[in-house]
Each structure stands twice: as structure tokens, then as C-alpha cells.
């Protein structure tokens, strides 16, 4: 990078030296390079191209207290699920693939086992017996209330009925957990398999089963993540925790889109330190939907602890000399004056050319006119040095305080202030000689 800058500077110096030689060797009546007013640098198109000069305006940025941080993208606990089998069984079929998008209730796999059959048989048998016990209970109750039946018999039937009813509700709940219909089972429809379904909408991140293997009740079969609720999870060290508040803005970049700055808002701050890190977790919700972000992705950025936007420029737009700082702005008046000066010289040259070569043909004169108009666009531009006060710096930008006001649309040299100052000092040294 330094070598490119040195080459650019040498090119500008060479161009300027050539212009000076031309000025010294020029004959009376020829166009000469005009030196700019004090504090003004004149650059022709070749010099601007050699420097790769860029123009821009002031930018408003927040350069106040900021906390550097990094972390990773995460989803809340409610947006991530590990799918297990309620009752263990053998995997008969797997119906999804890693990365598939699934909806809540969608079948992920099919398990089969004799225990599923027995559970349904027990439920169907108990449902039939419960009908008899319910009828007997109602009959004994009526006899007891009419002082006809013995109280002991009524209490025994009541106990059996309540016990059977509780067991019935338990078996019914187990069937529902297995996504089997109790009503169909009571009608005699017995299934030897059960579906494993997704509890949430999301994407399949892990598949830990194979067809034919036995999946226990505690084994994780699938992991589902809902990325629509993804947020930024940062780590902030203890010496900066006191600066944090809910609602603060975070500017950060993600690993897969490093050229785009994302923003988020803090909604939760951890209340305990991460083990061995002396840092707390800070959770921030994204201010806009950003495709391509996935949990676990590395992120880094800074937290704005207060809001105080100020006028800034890139560091290369500001140059220091002693204790003072300067920028270079496009001086439109000096540029127009210099352009007018060039036009006057062109007119004089054309007049002298007409006197000397009065016999020139109309065709050659037309070609000369055309060439003159084509060159008018290659005008010299004037840049005036303006003193400023440099303030805070962050991420390649410096705060700029103006000693005298400038219009908001002022065109400013953004990248070569150092070389313009060097050229200006060179010209001043030449004048002293």
C-alpha cells in the first residue's frame, strides 16, 4: 500500500515538474501553468488521476463512548427443540433430511414396537371395563341413597370405578402423547407404529437416528431450530458492564457478510458472569430481517452507550502540521477563475494563430475549433486548505470541528490531504527561492 502511495506522489511531482519546465521554456504568447493563490493547490486531470483523488462530504457518526464486543448468533430457548420418543421403539422410517424446513406437527420419523400394541390393548380393555363399572356405580349409588343397598358394597364399587377411571385417563394421555387416537383405539383400530412429529416450526439441524436402530425414550432423535427468532448474543467483560442499559444500539458484522454493518437493540442483560470469562451475556434483537444468519455464527461489533452524533471525515482527509489540523475543500470560485484564465489564453493563442496563418483552409480551421471544444472538459481544479480542530477517532473516522462554517454540500478531499499539503509546501518553498 505504501509503495502505491509513493508511486502516486512521484507521479504527481513529475507532472508538476513537467508543467514548471513548460512554463519556463514557453514562448511569449503560449499558455503557461498558472500558480494558485496562497493556500490553494491546483490539480489537472492527470494529477488527480495519479492520486486517485476522491471527493465527498461530511458524515454524521456516533464517536462517543463505545464498548467493543463479540459473540455469536443465537435463538431463544423456545425456538429450539430436541425431539425424543415418549416410549422407545425401533426406527422404521425417516422422512426428513438435514436442513429441511418443517412445520409444527409434521412427521419426522416412524417408530414401531410391541409395547405400542400392548398399550392400545390395555386401553381398549380398560375402556370396555370402565363402562361396566360406571353402570354398576350408578346402580349402587341409587340403592344406597334409597337405603336399599349396603354402604360397604357402594364404597367398594365406587373405589373400583374411580381407580379404573384414573387409569383410563392415564392411558388415554399416553396414547395422545404418542399421537394415537384414543377414539379409534376404542373402536378396535390398533396400530403397531407411532409417528415422531416436530414440536415447532423450523429447520432440521441434527438427525441422530438410522433406520432399524432402537431409539430409547431419553435419546435425542432430531434437533429443530426456528431461525425466525434469531438474535445477537454478545459477551461484555465486567469492566464495561456498568455502561450497559436496555434499549442501547449495537453495530456489528457477521462472519458471512463482513462488508455489511448490521444493527440491533439490547433487550436483556445477563445477571451473572460466564464461567472463567468474567463476562456477561447481552442479548440484542435485530432491527431488520437479515437472511443468511444461522445460530452459532461469529459476530463482532460495538455497543453505543450514548447517542451523540458528530461531524466526521475519514482519517486520510485530515492532515496535521505542528499543532494544527487541516482539510482541503474544492474552491469553486478559484476553479472557475482558473478555467476562465485558460479560456482567455486559448483565445489569445487562436488569435495569434489566425494572424500568422491567415491562409489556413476552412476545413483545417474547423478541425482546430473541434479540438478546442473537446479540451474544455479537462479543467484544472482548485483545492483550498481549511484549518479545523480534530476530535475523537474510531474505526477510520475522525471528528471534525469547524473554526468557520462551511456549507453542508462542500466537496472535501477524502483521501490525499497529506500529499496536497506536501505539494503546497513545495510551492511555497519554491516561491521563497
Automatic annotation (TrEMBL):
Coiled-coil portions: 116-174
InterPro entries listed in its UniProt record: Beta-barrel_RND_2 (IPR058792), BSH_CzcB-like (IPR058647), MFP_Cation_Efflux (IPR051909), RND_pump_MFP (IPR006143)
CusB-like beta-barrel domain sequence ranges: 236-302
Gene Ontology biological-process entries: copper ion export; plasma membrane copper ion transport
Organism superkingdom: Bacteria
Membrane spanning residue stretches: none
Domain CzcB-like barrel-sandwich hybrid: 80-226
Pfam families xref list: Beta-barrel_RND_2, BSH_CzcB
Basic and acidic residues bias locations: 336-375
GO molecular function: transmembrane transporter activity
Cellular component terms (Gene Ontology): cell envelope; membrane
Keyword annotations: Coiled coil, Transport
Chain intervals for the UniProt region annotation (Disordered): 336-379
Family named by the database record: Belongs to the membrane fusion protein (MFP) (TC 8.A.1) family.
NCBIfam families referenced in this protein's UniProt entry, alphabetically: RND_mfp
Name the UniProt record assigns to this protein: Cobalt-zinc-cadmium efflux system membrane fusion protein
Source lineage: Bacteria, Pseudomonadati, Bacteroidota, Bacteroidia, Marinilabiliales
